[in-house]
Every structure is written in C-alpha cells, then in structure tokens.
Amino acid sequence: PTLLSVEGLTKSYGGVHAVRGVSFELRAGEILALIGPNGAGKSTCFDMLNGQNIPDSGRIRVLGAETTGKKPRVIWRMGVGRTFQIAATFPTMTVRENVQVALVSHGQQLFNLWASTARHARDEAGRLLDLVGMGAYAERPCGELAYGDVKRLELAIALANQPKLLLMDEPTAGMAPRERVELMRLTARIAREQSIGVLFTEHDMDVVFEHADRILVLNRGTLIAEGSPEEVRGNA
Ligand code: ADP
Ligand code: ADP
C-alpha cells in the first residue's frame, strides 16, 4: 500500500528553483534514500514533507490524507516522525526521562492528566529503549552517552508517536563507519517489523547502496534517476 505520495512538488526562492516537479511514492516498510549533491534540494524536500516549509505547488499525501502546507505539529500527529541532524536531547536527564519527555510533550497529553498514566509513559519509554537496544542505558544521564548511542536514543524518541512514516535527515552524519551500519540495520529492522516507511538523506554512498530499497537522485531540484541500488549504481 502507498504510504507517502508526492506529486509535482515545487519550491522556488526568488529565481532559484530549489525543488521542481518532484513526484514519487513510498510504500509501508520501504526504505527510500534521497541523494544528490549540495544544493540539489534535499533539505527543501524534507522541510516540505515535515511542514517546516510550504510548497509553491504540488501535493503531499500520507496514507491518503493531504498534509500539504500543514503545520509540523499537525503532520506529526498524522503519523509522520522525524529525527534531527543535531540531537535535541536533554543531557542532564536520564535516557529514559528523555523518551518520557517526548511521549508527554509530543501531544500524548493523557500522560499528564493521571498519575497512573505517568507509569504508563515510563513503561512505554522502557519498551522503546529496548526496541533500539538501549534498555541497559535507561537510568544513565543522557550527557554521558557516546554519539552513536545518542543517535539510537533519537530513533527511540522519533518512534514515540508510533509514526507510519519516518523522515531521517542525514541520520549517520558524524558517526564512525561501523556505527553507521549498526544504526541503519536497526532502522531497517524496525521499519520492516512495524511496516514503517523511511525516507532518508545520506552523503555516504556505501550506506545508501547497502541499506536503501530504492534510491531517488535529485539534481538542481529535479529527480534525474530512480531505482534499486543495483539500477542506480549501474547508471552512475
Ligand atoms: P540540499 O539539501 O540538497 O543541499 P537545499 O534544499 O538546501 O539543497 O537547497 C536547494 C537550493 O535552494 C539551493 O540552491 C539553496 O541555496 C536554495 N535555498 C534553500 N533554502 C533557501 C532559502 N531559505 N532561501 C534561499 N534559497 C534557498
Ligand atoms: P544540508 O544540505 O547539509 O542538509 P543545507 O545546505 O541544505 O544543509 O542547509 C540547511 C538549511 O539552510 C535548510 O533549512 C535550507 O533551507 C537553508 N538554506 C540553504 N541554502 C540557503 C540559502 N541560499 N539561503 C537561505 N537559506 C538556505
């Protein structure tokens, strides 16, 4: 089934066509990489998908519902999660508390209302940390984590709202090669198990070719190639 449908997405800044007529689809459980040189329009596409930028024209639909031009918070509630390039975690709070904050602040206000549900948030945070292999770190201050572990924590936080679509803007930036592989394997496993569609940007072509099911190649705002890693590599 089609999870994300993008049709004719277009955005200009003055005379610069940042994104021009971009159309693609993403299925549940599929991992799609968006690649292209600096200035190709990757960030602009991402920002329009998560509501931080308004397209000039085109349509974005998630599970058939129109998200075009809606606010980030609304899009988030419609089942779109994201990770951030710069970690937005609280260093003096524990790893578990960081996930609890995400569960509470990201709109599951029920957790605020009843003491009994505070315990539910605690349990849910534990479940998410186990999912990303961070259960053993739950009670440690976040600031003591290695960078690769912060990235896994960010993934747990992005999953707090049980997204159907996960947007990851350069998820492996700044990581060691082995950590990159681990993070992407983990992401792929969770995506498959929970039928989450993942769209990610990435500079490391080894990561892209190994972990993407399909690749979109953007250049000067236009999609110039699309296909499996084998197909795209063959054309390169
Ligand atoms: P990428 O993420 O692939 O590096 P961007 O989406 O950041 O590409 O940029 C695409 C083009 O749009 C570039 O030419 C960039 O300079 C331009 N651009 C992006 N954002 C803005 C903005 N807020 N104002 C003006 N030009 C922008
Ligand atoms: P990256 O390619 O590493 O993701 P970008 O170079 O695309 O980073 O820039 C990140 C942010 O800066 C984006 O939000 C983008 O819209 C903005 N940006 C990029 N180019 C310009 C520009 N020429 N003028 C203003 N903002 C820009």
Describe the structure.
By secondary structure, this protein is an alpha/beta fold. Helix content is 38%, strand content 27%. It has nine helices and ten strands. The strands form two sheets. The protein has a six-stranded mixed β-sheet with strand order 6-7-8-3-9-10, sandwiched between helices. Strands 2-1-4-5 form a four-stranded antiparallel β-sheet, covered by helices on one side. Strand 7 (165-169), helix 7 and strand 8 form a beta-alpha-beta unit. Helix 6 (147-158) runs parallel beside helix 7 (177-194). The longest helix is centred in the last third of the chain and has 18 residues, at 177-194. The chain is globular, with a radius of gyration of 18 Å. Bound molecules: adenosine-5'-diphosphate (ADP) (2 copies). One adenosine-5'-diphosphate binds next to helix 1. This is Amino acid/amide ABC transporter ATP-binding protein 1 (HAAT family). One of its GO terms (biological process) is D-alanine transmembrane transport. GO terms for molecular function: ATP binding; ATP hydrolysis activity; L-isoleucine transmembrane transporter activity; L-phenylalanine transmembrane transporter activity; L-valine transmembrane transporter activity. Involved in beta-(1-->2)glucan export. Transmembrane domains (TMD) form a pore in the inner membrane and the ATP-binding domain (NBD) is responsible for energy generation. It comes from Bradyrhizobium macuxiense.
